[in-house]
Specification:
Blueprint lengths: L11 H43 L5 H49 L3 H45 L3
Length: 159
C-alpha cells in the first residue's frame, strides 16, 4: 500500500498536529486549575496554622487543628502529584506535535523508514501524555472528595 503524498493533501501535516495541539491546550487548562487549587490549599493551611498557634494546649481545638493540618498535607501532596502529571502531559503533547511535524517532513521527502520510527516516537509521546492526564484527573477527583469531606466536617463544628 502506497502512502499518500502531502502534495495530494496540503492539510495532511496540519491534521497530524491537531490532536496533540488540542490535548496540549487541555493540559494547560488543567495545569492552571490545579495551580489554583494548590493556592487554595496553601491559603487554608496558613489559616489553620494560625489557628493552631493560638489554640490552648490540651483542647479539642488543638486536636481539630492538627487533624485539619494532616488532611491539608494529604491534599497538597495529591495536588502536587497531579500538577506534575499535568505538566508532564503538556510536555508530552508538545513533543508529540513537534515529532509529528518531523514525521510529515520525512514522509514528504520519501524516507518511509525514518517516518515509521518517528511515528512510533510520536505515538509514545502522545500515550505518555494521555496516561498522565488520566492519572492526574483521577488524583484530582480523590483530592476533591477529600476537600468536600473536610468542608462537611468543618460545617458540622467541633467533635
Amino acid at each position: 500500500m502506497e502512502m499518500a503524498s502531502f502534495g495530494d493533501n496540503p492539510f495532511a501535516a496540519l491534521t497530524i498536529v491537531v490532536a496533540p495541539a488540542i490535548l496540549t491546550n487541555a493540559s494547560s487548562v488543567l495545569c492552571l486549575g490545579t495551580t489554583n487549587r494548590l493556592a487554595r490549599v496553601v491559603d487554608r493551611t496558613r489559616v489553620v496554622s494560625a489557628e493552631l498557634a493560638n489554640a490552648a494546649p490540651n483542647t479539642r481545638n488543638l486536636d481539630a487543628c492538627q487533624r485539619k493540618l494532616q488532611d491539608l498535607r494529604v491534599r497538597w501532596t495529591l495536588v502536587l502529584r497531579a500538577l506534575k502529571l499535568f505538566y508532564m502531559s503538556l510536555g508530552s503533547f508538545a513533543a508529540a506535535a513537534l515529532i509529528s511535524l518531523f514525521g510529515s517532513v520525512f514522509t514528504a521527502s520519501g524516507q518511509h523508514l525514518s517516518f515509521n520510527f518517528i511515528a512510533l516516537l510520536g505515538l509514545l509521546a502522545g500515550t505518555v501524555g494521555v496516561v498522565g492526564l488520566v492519572i492526574g484527573c483521577t488524583i484530582m477527583m480523590r483530592e476533591t472528595r477529600l476537600a468536600i469531606k473536610n468542608l462537611e466536617e468543618e460545617t458540622q463544628g467541633p467533635r
